[in-house]
Amino acid sequence: MNENSHLPPSEDNLRALGRIGLVYCTWHQGYTTTGKLVQAVDRTSGSGGVLFACLSCRRDHHLTPVSGDAS
After folding, report:
1. 0.70 exceeded by pTM
2. Residue 61 and residue 29 in contact, taking contact as beta carbons nearer than 8 Å
3. Range of the domain at 27
4. Would residue 24 count as lying in a domain?
5. Domain assignment of residue 25, yes or no
6. Residues 10-43: pLDDT tens digits?
7. Lower Cβ count inside 10 Å, N or C end of the chain?
8. What single string gives the DSSP state of each residue in the chain?
């Protein structure tokens, strides 16, 4: 197994991954098809960014998607 398979993707690859339905779950540090945006970091206070969590991590860590969707 590739030891880099759990590293977050480069910013250049984020768009391509989103197009095929994959996002990087910040909590379990792997790719998922059930990921939802749970936090957006304001760019004015630093480098900014977004955090995604898969369904099981949202349940385990009581995270609510930004859209308000409870799934």
Report:
1. no
2. no
3. 11-60
4. yes
5. yes
6. 666 666 666 677 888 999 999 999 999 898 777 6
7. N
8. --TTTTSPPPHHHHHHHHHTT-EEETTTTEEESS-EEEEEE-GGGSS-EEEEE-HHHHHHTT---TT----
